Automatic annotation (TrEMBL):
The keyword Transport applies. Keywords: Cell membrane, Membrane, Transmembrane, Transmembrane helix, Transport. It comes from Streptomyces termitum. It is a multi-pass membrane protein. This is ABC transporter permease. SUPFAM superfamilies: MetI-like (SSF161098). GO terms for cellular component: plasma membrane. Residues 90-307 form the ABC transmembrane type-1 domain. Belongs to the binding-protein-dependent transport system permease family. The lineage of its organism: Bacteria, Bacillati, Actinomycetota, Actinomycetes, Kitasatosporales. InterPro entries: ABC_transporter_permease (IPR051393), MetI-like (IPR000515), MetI-like_sf (IPR035906).
Length: 319
């Protein structure tokens, strides 16, 4: 092959390399067109309600006459600072959240560890662990309300068998919080256990083999291999549980018949979600309810920011 023939043979290759410099406009816009429906729906059902609620929180608005609004400025927010029922609902939310979340995540971790073992009928046990999550909130709460009944409930019957006095689970200040927290604990433990179980499957088995060769027992392997591999799952479930605790609504609403949004005769288990519902749909003060909704969001943001700040400080201290 002569030099001229080789040069002519290389010309199409060079031209083909230079040609795809600019793609057609249609191919460049295709990805944006595919994701556009999500952003349109998110703007319509996510951003717009947030913005509308924020704007409504600066007005005095009655549910029966939403068009007759009056500008109130920051009055609705300032009112929350001096509202004893708001602080009561906040303390109840924190206490019920702690009573439900901490044991829930610990139990879920133990259940996941058991489900990870090679047992017969593992699929059945995994489905059974998820069954409480699939149960209706109303059905589960009504069953637990009967379970904690003062006169004919099974819990007080069991206490009587061992010689203890019955407990008024629906009216006691601490007993009612524990009872509501137990409903949340029962419903969400299996769900979190399956998340941990899936995360355990991503831990490389070589780490367990290396730890076993180093003489680490089952507990040390779980503490030094499994738990570090579960950090993303632990962070996710902790964040979701915190959000769920702030939004807790169905369980305390249905726990006691006749209590409604008040959360008991003395508001002993009224959560922020119940208090928001009471302000907006019982007392008909939409402006106050909107301010409370944004206060709940700001509390969550502040809580997550504080956790991130503490973790960042620990990381810098470890260096």
């Amino acid at each position: 092959m002569t030099e001229e023939t080789a040069r002519r043979a290389l010309v199409p290759v060079a031209a083909e390399r230079v040609r795809p410099r600019g793609r057609p406009l249609r191919s460049r816009a295709a990805p944006y067109a595919l994701v556009a429906p999500f952003f349109l729906l998110f703007a319509a059902f996510g951003l717009f309600p947030l913005a509308a609620t924020a704007w409504l929180s600066f007005f005095r608005v009655d549910l029966t006459a939403p068009e007759a609004r009056q500008w109130a400025g920051a009055h609705n927010y300032a009112r929350l600072l001096g509202d004893e029922f708001f602080w009561n609902a906040l303390s109840n939310t924190v206490l019920i959240g702690l009573l439900a979340t901490v044991p829930q995540l610990l139990l879920a971790l133990g259940v996941a560890h058991l489900l990870a073992a090679r047992l017969r009928g593992r699929l059945f046990f995994r489905v059974a662990a998820l069954a409480p999550y699939a149960t209706s909130v109303a059905a589960a709460t009504l069953v637990f309300a009967l379970f904690y009944g003062r006169d004919q409930g099974m819990v007080n019957w069991a206490l009587g068998v061992v010689g203890l006095s019955p407990v008024d689970w629906q009216n006691g200040p601490w007993a009612s919080k524990f009872a509501v927290a137990s409903i949340v604990l029962w419903r969400w433990t299996g769900y979190n256990a399956l998340i941990y179980l899936a995360a355990m499957g991503t831990v490389p088995p070589e780490l367990y083999e290396a730890a076993a060769l180093d003489g680490a027992g089952r507990w040390r392997r779980f503490w030094h291999v499994t738990l570090p591999g579960l950090r993303p799952a632990l962070a996710f479930t902790g964040a979701v549980s915190a959000i769920g605790a702030v939004q807790l609504f169905g369980e305390p609403l249905l726990f006691s018949s006749g209590a409604g949004a008040s959360g008991g005769a003395d508001h002993q288990y009224q959560t922020l979600g119940l208090y928001l519902y009471e302000q907006g749909w019982v007392n008909l003060h939409l402006g106050r309810a909107a301010a409370l909704a944004w206060a709940m969001l700001l509390l969550l943001v502040a809580g997550f920011g504080l956790v991130r700040l503490v973790r960042g400080g620990r990381g810098r201290g470890a260096r």
